[in-house]
Amino acid sequence: MGVSIAIHSYRGGTGKSTTTANLAVVLTALGLKVVAVDLDITSPGLHVIFGISSDMMKFTLNDFLYKKCYLNDILLDITSHLGLSKGKLFFIGSSMKPEEIAKLLKEGYNEYLFKEVSDELIKSYGVDIVLFDTHPGLTEDTIISVLSSELSLLLMRMDKQDITGTYITAQILRKFRKVSYVVLNMVPPKLASAPELANEVSKLVKAPVVAVIPFYEEVLSHRSRGVFVLKHPRHPFTSRIVKLAETVISLTRR
Ligand SMILES: Nc1ncnc2c1ncn2[C@@H]1O[C@H](COP(=O)(O)OP(=O)(O)OP(=O)(O)O)[C@@H](O)[C@H]1O
Ligand SMILES: [Mg+2]
């Protein structure tokens, strides 16, 4: 049975889209059927990392939210586009058209549909893992979309604001009986090797830290031009993402 996972963070720029894209590719390469959904509807960006142009997307999540098309119409198979030979990777993108983004901001949308999307992907399409790349923060629409998934990976940096915000986010999700796990990203390399770091941060944010990913200059200078793990299979960032993928698989089997 499949699982849906929200990749979320209290603050912006923590590496959600980077992690979603790279994790999706690694999970697919492990033979799974994966869907990466850009739920950052007001500032989509995941398509950039996957190298997907707007004309490759006939329909977007926006069309689905306004019932202009079926789920099948927004499912884009990007397995061969990314040169993956194992598993299946689909992408669901949000519109990049300014007028469509403006419409969503003005009129709102039914966030509860996201639960239907993941349920249908899992039940009717046999998807193993649905990854939702979200908009940062605690606005109502974002929290509802995070609550659409079974578990959340909360990304944070080693910054006091991130620590406080991640603690609050995990508490809110707990109130809704949602399980969240923390991923420390962009950790200063010297700090990343400290054996007690994960334990210490787990205590501070009152949620288990399941991965520590250091800051890598090469990831930053890659500048979202493609999926890093595909271009640099031997880089230590890739090994961290592979480890995270294995952890995610074990968490989904609990
Ligand atoms: N471990 C890392 N080391 C170095 N740079 C990183 C790392 N993870 C992500 N980055 C870089 O940080 C920047 C922000 O990443 P990304 O866009 O994935 O964040 P985000 O959380 O999706 O942002 P937003 O909240 O705006 O959606 C990107 O330039 C990305 O390449
Ligand atoms: Mg993002």
Beta content comes to: 15-25%
Distance between the termini: 12 Å
Total count of domains: 1
> Over all CA atoms, what is the radius of gyration?
17 Å
How many DSSP E strands?
A: 8
Strand order of the largest sheet: 3-4-2-5-1-6-7-8
CATH superfamily assignment? P-loop containing nucleotide triphosphate hydrolases
Bound molecules: adenosine-5'-triphosphate, magnesium ion
SSE succession: EHEHHHEEHHEHEHEHHEHHH
What is the CATH architecture annotation? 3-Layer(aba) Sandwich
Structural class: alpha/beta
Question: What top-tier CATH class fits best?
Answer: Alpha Beta
Approximate helicity band:
40-55%
Number of helices: 13
Write down the overall mean pLDDT.
95
The 3D shape can be described as: globular
CATH fold label = Rossmann fold
Low-confidence runs: none
Biggest sheet overview: 8 strands, mixed
Kindly describe this structure.
The chain is globular, with a radius of gyration of 17 Å. The protein contains 13 helices and 8 strands. With 254 residues, it is of the alpha/beta class. It has a single domain, classed as Rossmann fold. Strand 6 (151-156), helix 8 and strand 7 (179-187) form a beta-alpha-beta unit.
